[in-house]
């Protein structure tokens, strides 16, 4: 999570937004960015998500890192339903296949998504941005850069198909997020959740 925030701080387009808009965009899009970032280091054989630097994803998959990833997977399966777990990993498999182990695709996709307003499908309505037109422009800008890069790496037709699959998989992720949110509410007393996690999980 911190690595993603640090990544965004290096993007002048993001830093030039006011504090309120940056906070709203991060709060409602951070989970999607984590999903995209994790897909780059996703172990499709063992279905493990490694906590790595994108630039050093091969060297940092140590035994300790693998053990931590296995514990996280076990904890997720213990706390939430097997069905939610399968849906999440199916989404990760799809994104992993679409990005072709290319960190540039991941970064452009993350930048396109951080400026995506209204992507949350949770019950709590997203606040209105102060400069929604500029945020929409930035979303369009990085989506266009992503599309052009995909064309350069393959072909126009392949790029179109990949973009359609990206939209499809994130619609699935939206539905999963809603189910995940409801699962937490049904099992956990929200009043006992820390203020930070309440905000992160959109309970506050």
UniProtKB/TrEMBL annotation:
Keywords: Receptor, Transcription, Transcription regulation
Entries under InterPro entries matching the protein: NHR-like_dom_sf, Nucl_hrmn_rcpt_lig-bd
Residues of the NR LBD domain: 1-204
Keyword S-adenosyl-L-methionine in record: no
Protein origin, superkingdom: Eukaryota
Name of the protein described by the UniProt record: NR LBD domain-containing protein
Native source organism of the sequence: Adineta steineri
